[in-house]
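Internal tracking record. Fields below are filled automatically when a chain is submitted to the structure queue. Please do not edit lines marked as system-generated. If the sequence contains nonstandard residues, flag them in the REMARKS field before resubmitting.
Queue: standard
Priority: normal
Entity type: single polypeptide chain
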Amino acid sequence: MKSVLVVDDEPGIGSLVALCLDHLDVDVVMANDKANALQAARAHDVGLVLLDLALGNEDGLGILPDLRNEPSLAGVAIVAFTAHDSRRQEAFDQGVDAFLKRPFSSVDLSSTVETHLVIPPA
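SYSTEM-GENERATED OUTPUT FOLLOWS
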């Protein structure tokens, strides 16, 4: 089963994402910072990363290069999300694959995940 790695410092976001993606055959894994995100990426079969740009003490775009350089995440889409739509272009300039403005709807989240989730051919 593929995992969606949610990198966010708010624990409730993982539950919300899991609820929104309940209809998909995915496992939602939470990480609250760069170290935990890299550890989770190595421990799970991650098919998509949802990256909050406001991570408390870390900037989500600041850890983006580390996520991109992680071999276990090669070819995996990274979707940025934040309440600040003003960071949209910056996020795309830094190399994210998609952007969601918070609060996002379950339909938008589900559609974005379905579009970008890496699932190997059967």
